[in-house]
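Today's session is about reading a structure prediction critically. Students often jump straight to the picture, but the first step is always the sequence itself: look for stretches that repeat, for charged clusters, for runs of hydrophobic residues. Only then move on to the predicted structure, which in these notes is written as discrete structure tokens rather than atom positions. Here is the chain we will use throughout the hour.
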Amino acid sequence: MKAIELKDSPCGGLVPTEQGQWAFVPDPLPRHVDLSSSLIYLLDEASRAVATLAGVGETLPNPHLLIRPFLRREAVLSSKIEGTQASISELFMFEASGAQRDPRDAREVANYVHALELGLELLNELPLCIRLINRVHQRLLLGVRGEQAVPGELRTGQVWIAPLGTPIHEARFIPPPANLVPDLLADWERYVNEDLRIPPLVQCALMHYQFEAIHPYFDGNGRIGRLLIILFLCTKQVLPTPLLYLSAYFERNRDAYYDRLYDVSSTGNWQAWLEFFLEGVAQQARDAVVRSRRVRQLQQRYRDLLQERHESGNAFSLLDELFANPFMTAPRASAVLGLTPAGARRVLERLAQTGIVEYVSGAWPRLYVARELLQAIENPEAAQS
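Below is the predicted structure for this chain, in token form.
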């Protein structure tokens, strides 16, 4: 780590660590933030975009139809930042049938889904706290790479941020020694639960930086840090439904994302990080609005088509399930509808006749996909299309 870049940091200090290196220890987060006129403008843009998205979420007759595919898109993109290569299609296929070329990556992404779902569920009984985060972290690493890194427990040794296999003396950033992590997280926990006179989106940006700077686990810190953004916004009631995810923005701007976080540590430049974060909130909120409206319009068109054909209630039920996962097998349809596999297959074939689903050649068990719906979820830039 280039200690010379961090030795005069106005928001933290250096302490010695193993192998004669220096680790960066962030100061407690500020309880007051002065916003420049440019930041106030960006905050207004982001807040209005989030408010529009919140309104969309409140009008959804069944918000889970959007939450589930949006959450899976976030899981894929957040995991991609860490080098996991499963696509959205592969994740959906893995969940629908277990069929995927390299299930290891798909399992890791699926774990992110389960971890975020667990976090949202736990918010009904716990504040955003270390106990909650430990449980989410445990679920994230269950049965995948990193499971040896003591899931659900704070690290007891030194970590450093660098490509895999890089020695500590070549690391760009060395987080605090393990013995300091509990006290640093205690202040982080107080911060996220205090009633501060700071706009929630600004508080969220600061919270995310601090968690990344502390790096409290041996593995999974980046994914947990990004996952905490949606948990924070939900617990602060900024959003009624979890539809805003920033990993697509972070992944598109990966170098800038890491640079802005590092710049806070090295120069105390909150301004650049807040500008970057708020721009991402505005972009992704607008994207989610366009994407959700597109999916809702598609759902209505499909429902109208089934009504014109006087289809059964089973066809409508299966249609709703496709909006949670555009891939479907007869065994899964059988479980959803409570029909025999043969009966479920007949419903699937009727949906294929309408053009809603198509057969995926070469897949076993026989697999169907709602291709148009998958594209609506998967397309990278909904807000600009």
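Discussion point for the tutorial: Residues 7 and 258 are 19 Å apart (CA to CA).
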